[in-house]
Each structure stands twice: as C-alpha cells, then as structure tokens.
Amino acid sequence: MPEFLDEKLESYARSGIYPFHMPGHKRNVCCMSNPYAIDMTEIEGFDDLHASGGVLKEAQQRAASLYGSERSYYLVNGSTCGILTALSAALPSGGTVLMARNSHKSAYHAVYLRNLEIVYVYPKKTEFGILGSVDPIEVEESLRCNPNIKAVFLTSPTYEGVVSDIASIARIAHKYQAPLIVDEAHGAHFGIHASFPSSSVRLGADLVVMSMHKTLPSLTQTALLHLNSSYVTADLVERFLNIYETSSPSYVLMAGMEKCIRFLRENGAEAFEEYAKRLNEFYREAEALSRLHVMRREDFSSEEAFGLDPSKIVISAKGTELTGKRLAELLRKAHRIQLEMSSGFYALGMTSVMDSKEGFARFSKALRQIDGETGRIRKTADCVISFSDSGRQRMKLSYAMDQPRRAVSFEDSIGRVSGGMVCLYPPGIPILLPGEEIDGAFVENIRNFKKMGLNLQGIADMIHERIYVVT
Ligand SMILES: Cc1ncc(COP(=O)(O)O)c(C=O)c1O
User: Fold this and answer.
1) How many CA atoms lie within 13 A of 289 on its CB side?
2) 271 and 256, same structural domain?
3) What is the dihedral of CA 140, 142, 145, 150, to 10 degrees?
4) Distance from the CA of 365 to the center of ligand 1, in angstroms?
5) Is ligand 1 within 6 A of the CB of residue 218?
6) 178 and 106: one domain?
7) Mean pLDDT of 291-296
8) Is the CB of 78 under 6 A from ligand 1?
9) The pairing of beta strand 207-211 with beta strand 71-75
10) 9 in a domain, yes or no?
11) Ligand 1 centroid vs 348 CA: distance in angstroms?
C-alpha cells in the first residue's frame, strides 16, 4: 500500500500523541482555518517582501518594535536564510570570522559561499555533558590576536538552551570594530517574560536571527532577522536577502507571523505568565525523580553556562539502564509523548507558550512512572558532541568543499582530509567539516553514534561504513 504524506500527517494529527517538539504552535488552530483562502501573491495592495512599502513594511515594523530592533525582516526560509544573509552582509567575501565551533551547518554554508576564513572559539565543556557557553575572555583573546577578524558569530541559546554572556561579548566585539551576529534560532521567545533570558537584540548584538517556528506559535519556516548596527547597513542585508530568500514568499506563512506577533503584543504578558507557572510546576515535580534527572540551572557553574532557558526540558538518563533514545521511545510508546530529540544519555523536550496544563501533567506523570520502573547502573553510554581541534584543519573549508571526493572505508579515511560535512541531526552541528583531518577518535565516535541509532548526516554509506575524503 503506498503511503501519502498528506494522509499520513492527518492521521498522525488525530492520533493523540502529544508534541514536545517543534513547531511551537503545537498544532493548535491559533494560526488559520483555511490556508488556501489566503494564499496570495504580490497582487495590488499586498506589498512585496523584497521591496516592502505597505502592509508588509508595517508588519515588519511591528516585529521590530516588539523586539526593540531598528529593523526586522520577515524570513520565510527559516533562520537558515537569516544566517546566510547575516554572515554575507557582515563580512567581505574572503573575510575572517570568529566563529563558535558549535555553529549550525547553515553558518558553515555561508562560510563556503563567501569563501570565509574561520578562527574558532570553543564553547565550554560541562560536567553535565552538554556544550556550555562561549567565554567572553576567549572572544577578546581571539580578537586581540587576530586583527583580521571582521565579525563574530555565535549561537545563544544552544539547542539545549545554554545562553552566553551576549552583552559582554557585544561590548568586546565592538571594541575591535567587529559586528556581533547571534544565532538566536531557539530564542524567539526571549525577552517576553522575566522567566526567560533577555534577547540578544536588546543586549547589543548587531544582527540576530530567530526562528519563530521553533518556540513560538508560528508556522514552520517562519523566522526573523533583526538589524541594530552601526557596522552593517540595511542596504547590504537587503541585497543578500534578495539572493537567499525565495522570490515567492508565502502569504500564508507571513500571515501566521503577523498573527503571532499580534498575539505576543496583545496577550504575550498574561500568556507567558501562565506558561512560566506551568513550567515551574513541572520543574518542581521533577525534583521528586530519583533516577532520571531534569536539567536545571544548578547543574552548571557560572563559567560553564552563563544562563539557561527553562523552555528546553533536558532529561538525563545517566546512571540508569536507559539511554536517551530508549527514554524517548518509552515516552512515545507507553505514554504517547513525542520528544524533539534524544541522544546517548539524554532526551530533550521542547515546550512553548501553547503547551497545555494537561500536556505538562502527562509529561510529568510519565517521567515519574518511568523513573519508578527504571533500574540503576554505574555507567551510561555517553554521547557528547566533540570536535577535532583547529590544528586538524588541513584545507580551507570552501576549497575542500570544491575538490573532487570519493568514498573510502572508515579505516582508510584515518589521516585523510574530509571531503564532506558530517552532522548529528538534530541539532545539525557539524562534528566534521570539509578540510578537517579525520582521526581514529572521530571514527570511533561515529561508530558509537551508529550503535546508538542516532541520525548522522553526510556519511557516504553508514551501512558499509564509508566516508568522503578529498581525492
Ligand atoms: C542553532 C540553530 N541555528 C539555525 C537553525 C536553522 O533554523 P531553520 O530551521 O529555521 O532554518 C537551527 C535549526 O535547527 C538551529 O538549531
């Protein structure tokens, strides 16, 4: 029997499985009843996203005033389009960027397209096992030692919700005349309520990219790019938006963004107050778990994590007989809860202002039950994203990406130069980049990921263990 995507989605939507994953509207009918009725193009009176002067200009101004930005741009190609644009506008072709190594693959795609040089800054490793904040002192050190750096790029919050000290990093970047670009894809809900971190827009960043669809009631692919800079001009930003963004932006998506911004302006304060209460109650109940552990601020030193976004529910299964993957499977099969991602020792649920009291209660009860039924063990398989150090960059990324490549066995790849980008997905952070030397530790790591059943993108053939190298 063939499966049809539309029918499969509709049947899943009726299944009663609760979504602790993106998109942030959680499939509530907050958006619109019949999308076909409002699916238009640039007809008279409906403006043009690429040269807005009417209804779309006003819509973007409302977004800018909500977030406190000089200018905000609607994006219908996700944060990906905003990241490509921000890096392209902030740096000359061939320029040097100071970039956190845990950047999303879209940032590396901008590096490729604009032939950029990268100087890396590494996020802290944490005792808990996830990646932590970027240290402002290390940013300053890199800028001091590399006068060629023309912009700084980092991700805050990370996929797991770790926030960096953006105010300090912005001050440092500006001291060296470098604009700061923040990938705030997971932070579109920041700055709306005191229980969540402030948005980088108000902390001095020059360009901030946020995916509305990840954490707000907005349709998939909707995102914003905020510009607040004396280093980067609107003219340049618009030039690159014109290149990277579709010339047929969906009015359905844009109408959804307008609805979402209106909801935040008119009802955001009360709705987020209720959301914060539901989250607090969830975290309070999670304290009673004796084997599983729900990550909280106290799990980190201030050096490891400058701040933490409570909207991300990260459950550690360390010390239990479960892996993160198995925990997610139990939640799905026995409790009808679908999480956003699972990994070696943890699983992650994404919450939003649209999550119901019942949803949280079901999650809390399910965790208590699993906790009670799970045995303890001494060692859990770790699965920590790790990167090779910058000494292993043997070829410039954009040069390596354009070289002929071929697939060789994992064994034969050791000591050779990678011809591809390998990401654990989600979150889409490359663990190997084109131009980096492949070493034995990397091969061992990906074999572990394979054993755990994690999704690796960019491997030539996972079954027969073959990987791309530059020929
Ligand atoms: C940190 C980060 N940045 C950027 C992106 C790209 O966002 P989008 O899917 O909206 O293009 C993602 C996607 O997961 C992400 O996790």
Assistant:
1) 29
2) no
3) -90
4) 31
5) no
6) yes
7) 97
8) yes
9) unpaired
10) no
11) 16
Tell me the average pLDDT of the chain: 95
What is the 3-state composition of the chain as percent helix, strand, coil, each rounded to the nearest 5? 40, 20, 40
Ligand 1 proximity of 211 Cβ (cutoff 6 Å) = yes
Which numbered atom of ligand 1 lies nearest the CA of 214? 10
The DSSP line for 283-312 is HHHHTT-SSSEE--GGGS-TTT-SEE-TTE
Say how many CA atoms lie within 13 Å of 243 toward its Cβ: 15
| Amino acid in the structure at residue 145 | C
Q: Are strands 223-227 and 207-211 parallel, antiparallel or unpaired?
A: antiparallel
pLDDT in tens, 230-246: 999 999 999 999 999 99
Distance CA 309, CA 320 (A): 25
Cα separations (Å) of 416 from 112, 149, 373? 20, 29, 47
- 207 C-alpha to ligand 1 centroid (Å): 15
**422 and 284 in one domain?**
no
pLDDT at 377: 75
Ligand 1 atom 14 nearest Cα: 427
Residue 79, ligand 1, Cβ within 6 A: yes
Could you tell me if 240 and 272 lie in one domain? no
Is the pLDDT at 92 greater than 70? The verdict is yes
Are residues 173 and 142 in contact, defined by beta-carbon separation less than 8 angstroms?
A: no
Question: Three-state DSSP class for 241?
Answer: helix
The pTM assigned to this predicted structure is: 0.96
**Within this chain, do residues 327 and 210 fall inside the same structural domain, yes or no?**
no
Q: Are residues 366 and 229 in the same domain?
A: no
> Which residue has the CA at smallest separation from atom 9 of ligand 1?
78
The span from the CA of 85 to the CA of 266, in Å, is 30
Give yes or no for residue 29 having a pLDDT over 90.
no
Please state, in angstroms and rounded to a whole number, the distance separating the CA atoms of residues 200 and 209.
9
d(CA 89, CA 71): 15
Task: Find out whether the beta carbon of 80 lies less than 6 Å from any atom of ligand 1.
Answer: yes
Condensed to tens digits (0 to 9), the pLDDT of residues 100-146 reads 999 999 999 999 999 999 999 999 999 999 999 999 999 999 999 99
Quick one: which atom of ligand 1 is closest to the CA of 211? Answer: 10
Report the distance separating Cα 330 and Cα 322, nearest Å.
10
Distance CA 60, CA 63 (A): 5
Taking the alpha carbons of 217, 213, 273, 287 in that order, is the dihedral positive or negative?
positive
Q: Is the CB of 312 under 6 A from ligand 1?
A: no
Nearest alpha-carbon partner for 250 in 97, 81, 464: 81
